[in-house]
Specification:
Number of helices: 3
Strand order of the largest sheet: 1-2-3-4-5-6-7-8-9-10-11-12
Radius of gyration: 16 Å
Shape: globular
Low-confidence stretches: none
Order of helices and strands: EEEEEEEEEHHEEEH
Structural class: alpha+beta
Distance between the termini: 27 Å
């Protein structure tokens, strides 16, 4: 894939749908979250018409605190997972990405203050509607040794979510797949912010 990638979705949709475009504006992934499910489930397609399924992302439990989201290819083969670190996520979002049982990558919020300010301002009547244009959280995808490989940053937008993914290190194809599925999951879980 050619970076930077652009992710976009409408905030006021019943079933969340994310478009992922490469540096040339070509659609590379289209994600649809299933609406009205007790366990969160998402399908990643190769096209916006949703004719060719590539991956699935599904929660392992109903409650969202510390849930693990498993990645599988279209044939149902397990590819890895992402797990939110529950209580730590109150101040600063933190996710662990696994290859089987082995911790491979982490996704952490770059600045905890952005999350705190977004939460505080979001509670102010009328002004809270504009937090999507005011606050722009950024997330770092790192190896276990701390090396940053990808960076996800929120872009200014009022009634939609726009993110940019930039590449800062080398990833093998399986690592890149897990990292992108983890980023998509993070965006869907953190969508109400900024």
């Amino acid at each position: 894939m050619e970076y930077p990638l652009q992710l976009s979705f409408k905030l006021l949709a019943i079933a969340r749908q994310i478009s992922v475009a490469d540096a040339h504006g070509q659609l590379v992934l289209y994600v649809k979250q299933k609406a009205f499910k007790l366990k969160e489930a998402m399908t990643v397609f190769a096209d916006a018409a949703q004719t060719r399924s590539l991956y699935t992302i599904g929660a392992d439990r109903i409650l969202d605190i510390s849930a693990r989201y498993n990645f599988a290819d279209s044939a149902g083969n397990y590819l890895g997972s992402i797990k939110r670190q529950g209580m730590r996520s109150i101040w600063k979002a933190h996710y662990d990405v696994f290859d089987g049982d082995r911790l491979e990558l982490t996704i952490t919020e770059e600045s905890a203050w952005t999350k705190v300010l977004d939460s505080l301002v979001g509670e102010i009547p009328v002004v809270g509607m504009f937090t999507g244009y005011l606050f722009h959280p950024a997330y770092l995808v790192k190896r276990t040794n701390g090396a940053v490989v990808l960076r996800l940053e929120k872009r200014p937008a009022l009634f939609e979510g726009k993110f940019t993914v930039t590449k800062h290190g080398d990833l093998s194809p399986p690592e890149e797949t897990r990292a992108l599925l983890a980023i998509i999951t993070t965006v869907l879980l953190e969508r109400g912010r900024g």
